[in-house]
Design a protein that fits this description.
With 594 residues, the chain is α+β, with helices and mostly antiparallel strands. The chain contains 14 helices and 32 strands. 33% of the residues lie in helices and 22% in strands. A hairpin with a 2-residue loop joins strand 9 (95-97) and strand 10. It is globular and about 75 Å long.
């Protein structure tokens, strides 16, 4: 079976997995999202020998799959040609326990007969050594221990263990429970225990969704995006990863196969900003702790664009040859070279979320004067680097320019520090930061402006375009009706829009010319259409983007023009942020119905 991105994530903010339309676990890493894959089939061609967990129904003729409402709990129903039917419920436990959140490194699975006398086969084949081999195992009367690379999992079950070990077909006459978790004893009856954990997990997620402020329209899309963004959080540290996968290419045989299982300061900024619009202050506050740790570690100096979920600076990129790659497309990369880059927009993306702590009364830990002075060191770095070359937000590997987006983000850092200083009653510091913001603004308006077209360029002294120029209004640098912004928008629509989709840029880069549109940029374009009063067009393209989602309601990074096929890592946080932002922006008001 050829892999595709029709995948449904489950998770609990400590561990996650991707399940395909056949109900197979095909991707999961442990002990962290950036760890060695325990289930690696997604990255190992069309017929992998191991790296999956499936339940096969004899004579299966159809499969239906959907999430339990407002949760990441997945229900797969298989029906055989003779009418026999089973359901599989998959989840990662998450609920309150002993006054704290229980989120073990574990997956729960319940298999139930629904009709007739179904016969099934369970194949559980975890991987080790980055998919190179099947994990070794030992077994007892009610459990199997799998010795994966960096973690040992223990499967506790009321299914006969020999059925699993021998992968034999058997009649499913009662519900069977599987708990694949830490290598420790399961201290209760596994069937009722897993069911109780499932019930509490469903309750947790549905309560969390009830706390969100939703737009009137497109609520299902927003809820699914919000839940999935939460699954991309590594709660122990507050990190937010860009996606759950590595090395799904941006388009076929492109070589643009990257590892996104790390915390990009830029991506996380957009995530917390979108979730904050929904009132999800828990994720914001946790991420602010992650940022404060980075601020302390940087000591006013260089900040990398990306770190490990445990705040690791060293995430060196390497290529593994132990798996065939997504659809057989190599390379498969582990780590990301971007940690070596200069990307000066990160300073704005640190300051903007953190200044909220000086205003927001909901936070358990409001920002302090000491926090402000620590943040000023980041502002100093932003001012120092605002007109220096960098790799830009698109992370060019061999192209260095003074990118306009980076400079605007540095301006935003100084601008917001000035406003925060005013709020904190620090007039001298407010004046200092206003002056610095004005200096950066003047430089951008001079160096990045294309005089003969009345628009901005993507870098100082050049004429090229990129979609990030649409963010100049969102960041408050330009009014939406500023003639310079209108001219920039017109040029972007003319040169970067292909069909309903928007490219990041169209010039050749380190790997040639791009062939797929970047989903987040299309959502930026939708926002810009709205700002320009073209709401009907904005809604039409938004609906087209929603129609391109997987059955799980999600998007990857890129989309092909010809057939609308999704490419790039999945689920992509940028793309899910776009769904939330555009739904909020375009939705009719609640006052229309109440």
């Amino acid at each position: 079976m050829t892999p595709d991105l029709e995948l449904a994530p489950i998770g609990n903010c400590a561990v996650s997995a991707l399940i395909d339309r056949r109900g197979r676990f095909v991707w999961a890493c442990a002990p962290r999202v950036d760890g060695d894959p325990v289930f690696s089939a997604l990255m190992d061609g069309s017929d992998p020998d191991h790296g999956f967990w499936d339940v096969e129904l004899e004579g299966c003729a159809s499969i239906e799959q959907a999430y339990v409402r407002n949760t990441p709990v997945l229900r797969t129903v298989m029906t055989a040609a003779d009418g026999t039917r089973i359901e599989i419920v998959d989840f990662a436990p998450r609920h309150a326990r002993h006054s704290r959140t229980y989120r073990p490194l574990a997956f729960g699975r319940i298999v139930r007969p629904l009709a007739g006398s179904p016969r099934i086969r369970v194949r559980l084949r975890p991987a080790a050594d980055w998919g190179r081999r099947r994990a070794a195992f030992t077994s007892g009367s009610n459990h199997i221990r799998y010795l994966c690379t960096d973690v040992t999992f223990r499967l506790t079950t009321d299914c006969p263990v020999s059925h699993i070990l021998n992968e034999r077909s058997f009649r499913l006459e009662r519900p069977l429970a599987f708990f694949m978790g830490p290598d420790e004893g399961y201290d209760q009856d596994v069937g009722p225990g897993v069911q109780a954990t499932l019930d509490r997990t469903v309750g947790y997620w549905q309560d969390w969704v009830r706390s969100l402020y939703l737009p009137l329209e497109w609520q299902e899309a927003v809820i699914r995006a919000a839940i999935t963004l939460k699954l991309c959080v590594y709660e122990e540290t507050g990190a937010i990863v860009a996606a759950l996968t590595t090395s799904v290419p941006e388009f076929p045989e492109s070589g643009r196969n990257w590892d996104y299982r790390y915390c990009w300061i830029r991506d996380a900024y957009y995530v917390v900003r979108a979730l904050n619009r929904l009132g999800a202050v828990d994720l914001l506050e946790n991420y602010l702790g992650y940022l404060r740790n980075l601020v302390d570690a940087s000591a006013g100096g260089h900040v990398q664009p990306v770190y490990g979920v445990g705040l690791e600076a060293d995430i060196d990129e390497r290529i593994v040859d132990s798996v065939a790659g997504y659809r057989g497309m190599r390379p498969v990369r582990v780590g990301n070279q971007a940690h070596e880059h200069l990307q000066h927009d990160v300073y704005g993306q640190i300051v903007l979320p953190l200044v909220q702590s000086f205003y927001d009364q909901r936070l358990l830990r409001p920002g302090t004067i000491d926090d402000f002075h620590a943040l000023e060191r980041v502002g100093d770095r932003a001012f120092e680097m605002h007109d220096k070359v960098d790799a830009g937000l698109w992370e060019f590997r061999t192209i260095a320019r003074v990118h306009t987006y980076s400079s605007v983000m540095c301006w935003a850092a100084c601008d917001r520090l000035g406003k925060a200083a005013d709020h904190l009653g620090l007039p001298d510091r407010a004046a200092h930061w206003r002056d610095r913001a004005a200096t950066i603004r003047a430089r951008i308006e001079t160096e990045a402006f294309v005089e003969d077209e009345g628009r901005f360029a993507a870098s100082f002294g050049n004429r090229e375009l990129d979609a990030s120029l649409l963010q100049m209004t969102d960041l408050g640098f330009l009014d939406p009706r500023d003639p310079r912004q209108l001219a920039t928008f017109d040029a972007i629509e003319r040169d970067l829009k292909k069909g309903p989709y928007l490219f990041r840029y169209v010039e050749a880069d380190d790997f040639g010319e791009p062939e797929t549109a970047f989903n987040f940029c299309t959502f930026w374009f939708i926002e810009a259409l709205h700002q320009n009063g073209r709401d009907a067009e904005a809604r039409e393209i938004f609906e087209q983007m929603l129609s391109r989602r997987t059955q799980a309601g999600l998007l990857s990074e890129d989309i092909a023009l010809e057939d609308g096929q999704l490419w790039g890592n999945y689920p992509q946080t940028y793309s899910l942020v776009g769904i939330i932002n555009c739904a909020i922006l375009l939705s009719r008001s609640w006052t229309d119905v109440r």
